[in-house]
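note to self — DONT lose this again. spent like an hour looking for the file last time. sequence + predicted structure for the chain T wanted, 164 res
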Amino acid sequence: MGMSIDKKRAVTLALIACAVLAGPALAQGASDTQTFINAKDIKWTDAPPSMPKGAKVAVLQGDPGKAGPFVMRLKTPAGYKVAPHWHSQEENLTVISGTLYLGMGDKVDPKSEHALSAGGFHFLPGKVHHYAFTKVPTVIQVNTNGPFDMTYINPDDDPQKAKK
């Protein structure tokens, strides 16, 4: 019923990474204040270590390391892939630019994939197994509740494993 030590360690590392990312979030928009951010003023940082290298994130509002709502953007290069995984919280995904491909399930299955172009939206319930990839540079906005987590279906797909 409980999590393995490796899973607990991965979740803890992801939460620490998100807490580190929260520093820019506080400068961009604290939860109890109005926030105005133009695209040119967004502060991008490297994505947390729980995500494949190459992506950038910007926390626009809230703190992904704490319980409560937050808004972040994810900027990916062309050819970016995130292996099958799940999050404990539901997510509202909006494509800002490019195209995001989402597939459902524990394994990559082209029959389950949906392409979402700029302006597209997807509601993803918590704990739904899914994967994502891009063919062109893509920016998505994620509205969700923290703390943010990511659990890979196959633990070997977790980019943090490669560092060990």
